Amino acid sequence: MKNKNTLPVLAGLLGAIIIGLSFLFLKNIVNEASILSILSFRFTIAFFTMSIFVFFKVVRVDFRNKPILLLLLFSFIQPVLAFSFQTYGMKYATSSEAGVITALLPIFVMLLASIFLKERTSLIQKGSILLSAGGVLFIGFMSGVEGDANMLGFILIILSVLSMAVYSVLARKFSKQFTALELTYAMMAIGMIMFNFILLISPEKMDYSLILQPDFMLSIIYLGFFSSVVSSFLTNYMIANMGASRSGVFMNLSTIVSIIAGVFILNEAFYTYHLVGTICIIVGVIGANMKGIHTGVSNKPIQGSPVHHLK
């Protein structure tokens, strides 16, 4: 019983740390290759890494007699739609604007989960989710949201957030039919196919000489394996065992990790508003997980347990 409650929380914490650190590695290579090339490299490495684990039976996946078309739809929403909207939205919106909009994700997840999954949150949980989102919003606004916000960028980032919210709800729904590893494997496969196809038909060309650059490969391996495979598995496992609403609030913890990494690794400044926002996020996460959610979907552990799949 204790593991049933502890493991999803640990998955959420570890996933937030991995995602929060990913911006450091992305920052190392974003000027060396196009975003589309990075996504292509990232998901190609992610898929082949998982395929090696599957081939040698380190992990087990089984798609027989399962609704594959629904799985393809799920995998198209995340990562293809979510990453595409986010990536191209960043061309027209600033990083601070994108951060502020993305902070609304737990709220969208809570609303969609209440409608489609019949998840009911207590008043304390609702307030905690809003407090956590408010902490990220506060940091974003105090950091300075540039004035010339582009409407196209705003719309694309909103569509990215909505895609991620729909993904969270579908991950909970599909966790009865697919394991967390199967969901992750499908996501990496569709991501590899779609981003390579888009790169193939676009004017951009893949620069294969980047493979010979150690710094680029170190960053892309982190993004491909840890930030894609591991974080996606942890997120799918957390959603399957915790529910969509409570899981959504963990995504804001990555903001704290990014701030800490920026201070200690990049020597960025740490202001009072960072501390206030961080406290709001942490208190919000704790409050959202203080009491179980009453839901129409079973809360017993789904087949996504790491112990169930790792040989």
TrEMBL record:
Transmembrane segments: 7-26, 38-56, 68-86, 98-117, 129-145, 151-171, 183-201, 216-237, 249-266, 272-290
The keyword Cell membrane is assigned to this record: yes
Domain EamA per the UniProt entry, residue ranges: 9-140, 152-288
Pfam families in UniProt: EamA (PF00892)
Domain of life: Bacteria
Keyword terms of this UniProt record: Cell membrane, Membrane, Transmembrane, Transmembrane helix
InterPro entries registered for this protein in UniProt: AA-Vitamin_Transporters, EamA_dom, EmrE-like
Compartment(s): Cell membrane
Topological relation to the membrane, as annotated: Multi-pass membrane protein
Signal peptide bounds: none
Stated family: Belongs to the EamA transporter family.
Name this polypeptide is given: DMT family transporter
Organism name: Chengkuizengella axinellae
